[in-house]
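Weekly sync, protein design subgroup
Attendees: M.S., D.O., the rotation student, P.L. (late)

Item 1: inverse folding check
M.S. brought a backbone from last month's batch and wanted to see whether the design step gives back something sensible before we order anything. D.O. pointed out we never logged the input encoding, so this time it goes straight into the notes. Structure tokens as presented (803 positions):
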């Protein structure tokens, strides 16, 4: 049976419920958010009756980082209450309960839902601590068939993990439908879980987190030391340990831990540390003082202001329980490890050392391996769901079993036993059977995973038709490669350019491979994708190279680099065959300019894109300024009698303030993405969808756009922009140099010539596949053209005026 989620209802407007509603709006699903009516609300006062849901939604849209990808999406969310508006449940395709963790209240709500839900409506609970099956007890057979757990992680927009927990009664079709909805629409990494306490993510987090707190307090580590060690150096986010607890909320962390303990009496390792005295006393004190973390601006960290009013964060002294200025811990082992590439190799350096830092890393690493091994097969039959849950739910670089493989399973087991952290017996049995790794590898690729129940590798299925660059590297599909980029044949007549410099900064190697790809596109391929599997599409041009070249007077080299970027972008724009660019993460400066010159963009939802050059003291020179003018200013300039200033101001401010879109949808509103460009929620699907888009454009008879004239606004608009830059400088919002650069930007946008004839309209015409950008000035009374060739421009100041 097909299940389509076109309308949703979220019940519960707390932090999680409202944020899930916002994320549904992000993917274009209309959603109604419901909550209870305040006890004293009058029957005829809708605002009073919706007070709780209104306040919840208001907190949600004001939260930072933002839950909505664009402010305009909030129109997809309707607010209501559980008395006046409960009828919307009868129209919903999916109803998700996100209310208080009280079994009786949840069961009572399910009675009401069961009475009015339409036959194929799917009902889910977001519980993290109550057995899923118990919430549906007493309900109809059809209700139970369409009921399951769907546990999101907070904030749901940013954390990838979605745990799906079917009961014995849940239809397989329902499980498959919601897993697909979660992966393809919501953009989640879906982990199917058994109905065990706290499922997988939180079970691991608290089984290892409780140990960590106890070890930290018993071995006199400071908050600063712990967070310096349990962040990126261990392959974890910068929130590390104590910043994470503050982010989650001290009260939430404590609540989940307390709820878990009585549910796992069989878990001796978990019980030992969940009941430890020192952590319990610490958490009780924080709760008594209402030091709940970020929500109260005081927890393990405290936000303070110095004498100049600047924000600082003091850390909690775990002995005195007073906040003190943050320290900067230094350790020899960290110094030795920090520049080592690769998580496994970095951890080996730490684990081989013997200072205070190494001892903490050793204890946390070995205990985590021990704990996750002991909860198999209780929570999962293989190691993969645990690794996926840890990576996706807590943004770790790798899961515990993946790291264990990196370190060497057999040697690590010896060290674990030596330190008193012996793993579960099945690990020893696996090794004795000759199986040396938890994952089965073919070259660098994972092809199987060890099944603890079946005692052998289970093959991992790769989805058909997906583009995975790791599968193409060092194969015949890799057509060309240099230090900065690679060119692949991804099948079906489509080629793909991958950047792989540091931060994917644009350089000559990238220009060379991309130019080769465009050459080959003419005769060998039907279309081209430009994208990669890195965290960031491109952080832009190598500004260090620009600075060095300018300092050394290497103007010809600078001129050449700018020409190469312009030429590459203009070749993509006017390519007779489609070029699809697939940005994700950071796409800044030159990365934004490359994106804006695609035939079509297929962007990851979490794409942070913009022209940021003015923040570095230069003007976008890779044709980005021209493209902003074409997209924002051109349309209004073509309308007789229209007032262009608001549009000119928009372009001027977006470039001048180095604005960065905080999502692909926001980029669309800024004009960086076009209406026809696509946004993909699941980053893992990006290259696959980009390839599909190329094939779609080919099948629909793609034609390159005709060259456009770019209209400039003339003297008056130049004056207005120049006054604006002056006012910002006088108000001390920008520096003298910022004002100077902004004035140069205004000059480009207006193309002001110093004589009376500049009253007419003007145009900048970008010729495709030429080495230079030509600027053409047209006057109403003089049809002749005045052409300025960039080859004559010799100073960096002049070059930076080029767009």
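Designed sequence read out in the meeting:
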């Amino acid at each position: 049976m097909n299940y389509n989620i076109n309308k949703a209802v979220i019940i519960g407007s707390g932090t999680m419920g409202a944020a899930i509603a916002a994320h549904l709006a992000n993917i274009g699903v209309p959603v109604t958010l419901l909550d209870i009516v305040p006890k004293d609300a009058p029957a005829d006062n809708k605002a009073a009756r919706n007070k709780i849901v209104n306040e919840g939604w208001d907190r949600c849209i004001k939260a930072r980082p933002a839950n909505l990808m664009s402010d305009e999406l909030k129109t997809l969310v309707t607010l209501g209450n559980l008395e006046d508006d409960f009828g919307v449940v009868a129209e919903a395709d999916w109803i998700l309960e996100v209310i208080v963790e009280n079994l009786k209240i949840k069961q009572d709500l399910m009675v009401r839902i069961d009475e009015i839900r339409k036959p194929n409506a799917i009902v889910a609970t977001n519980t993290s601590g109550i057995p899923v099956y118990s919430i549906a007890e007493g309900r109809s057979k059809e209700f139970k068939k369409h009921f399951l757990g769907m546990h999101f992680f907070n904030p749901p927009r940013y954390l990838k993990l979605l745990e799906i927990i079917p009961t014995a009664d849940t239809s397989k079709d329902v499980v498959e439908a919601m897993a697909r909805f979660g992966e393809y629409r919501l953009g989640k990494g879906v982990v199917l879980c058994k109905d065990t306490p706290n499922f997988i993510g939180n079970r691991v987090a608290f089984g290892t987190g409780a140990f960590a707190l106890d070890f930290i307090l018993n071995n006199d580590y400071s908050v600063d030391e712990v967070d310096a060690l349990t962040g990126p150096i261990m392959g974890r986010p910068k929130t590390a340990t104590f910043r994470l607890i503050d982010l989650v909320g001290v009260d939430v962390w404590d609540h989940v831990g307390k709820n878990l303990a009585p549910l796992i009496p069989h878990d001796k390792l978990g019980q030992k540390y969940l009941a430890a005295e020192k952590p319990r006393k610490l958490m009780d004190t924080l709760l008594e003082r209402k030091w709940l973390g970020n929500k109260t601006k005081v927890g393990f960290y405290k936000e303070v202001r110095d004498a100049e009013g600047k924000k600082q964060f003091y850390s909690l002294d775990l002995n005195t329980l007073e906040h003190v200025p943050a320290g900067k811990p230094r350790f020899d082992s960290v110094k030795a490890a920090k520049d080592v590439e690769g998580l496994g190799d970095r951890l080996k350096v730490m684990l081989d050392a013997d200072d205070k830092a190494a001892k903490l890393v050793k204890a946390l690493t070995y205990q985590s391996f021990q704990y996750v091994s002991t909860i198999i097969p209780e929570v999962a039959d293989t190691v993969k769901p645990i690794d996926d849950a840890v990576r996706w739910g807590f943004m770790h670089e790798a899961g515990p079993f993946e790291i264990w493989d990196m370190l060497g399973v057999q040697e690590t087991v010896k060290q674990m036993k030596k330190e008193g952290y012996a793993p579960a017996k099945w690990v020893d049995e696996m090794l004795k059977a000759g199986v040396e790794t938890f994952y089965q590898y073919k070259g660098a690729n994972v092809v199987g995973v060890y099944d603890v129940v079946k005692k052998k590798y289970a093959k991992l299925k790769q989805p058909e038709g997906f583009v995975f660059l790791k599968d193409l590297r060092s194969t015949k599909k890799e057509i060309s490669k240099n230090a900065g980029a690679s060119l692949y044949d991804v099948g079906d007549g489509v080629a793909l350019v991958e950047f792989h410099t540091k931060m994917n900064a644009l350089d000559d190697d990238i220009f060379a491979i991309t130019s080769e790809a465009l050459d080959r596109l003419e005769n060998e391929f039907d279309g081209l994708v430009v994208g990669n599997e890195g965290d960031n599409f491109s952080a832009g041009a190598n500004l260090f190279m620009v600075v060095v070249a300018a300092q050394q007077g290497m103007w010809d080299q600078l001129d050449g680099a700018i020409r190469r970027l312009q030429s590459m972008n203009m070749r993509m724009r006017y390519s007779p065959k489609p070029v699809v660019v697939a940005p994700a993460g950071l796409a800044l400066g030159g990365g934004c300019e490359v994106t804006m010159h695609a035939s079509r963009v297929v962007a990851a939802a979490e794409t942070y894109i913009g022209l940021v050059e003015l923040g570095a003291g230069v003007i976008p020179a890779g044709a980005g300024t021209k493209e902003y003018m074409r997209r924002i200013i051109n349309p209004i300039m073509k309308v007789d009698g229209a007032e262009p200033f608001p549009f000119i101001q928009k372009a001027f401010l977006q470039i001048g303030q180095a604005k960065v879109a905080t999502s692909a949808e926001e980029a669309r509103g800024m004009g960086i993405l076009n209406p026809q460009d696509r946004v993909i929620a699941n980053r893992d699907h990006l290259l696959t969808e980009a390839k599909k888009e190329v094939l779609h454009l080919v099948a629909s008879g793609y034609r390159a756009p005709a060259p456009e004239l770019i209209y400039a606004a003339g003297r008056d608009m130049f004056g207005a922009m120049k006054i604006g830059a002056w006012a910002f400088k006088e108000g001390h919002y920008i520096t003298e140099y910022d004002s100077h650069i902004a004035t140069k930007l205004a000059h480009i946008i207006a193309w002001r010539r110093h004589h009376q004839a500049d009253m007419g309209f003007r145009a900048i015409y970008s010729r495709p596949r030429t080495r230079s950008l030509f600027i053409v000035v047209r006057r109403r009374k003089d049809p002749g053209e005045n052409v300025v060739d960039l080859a004559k421009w010799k100073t960096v100041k002049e070059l930076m005026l080029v767009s």
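Discussion: The CA atoms of residues 693 and 699 lie 10 Å apart. The chain is about 40% helix and 15% strand.
Action: P.L. to compare against the previous round before Friday.
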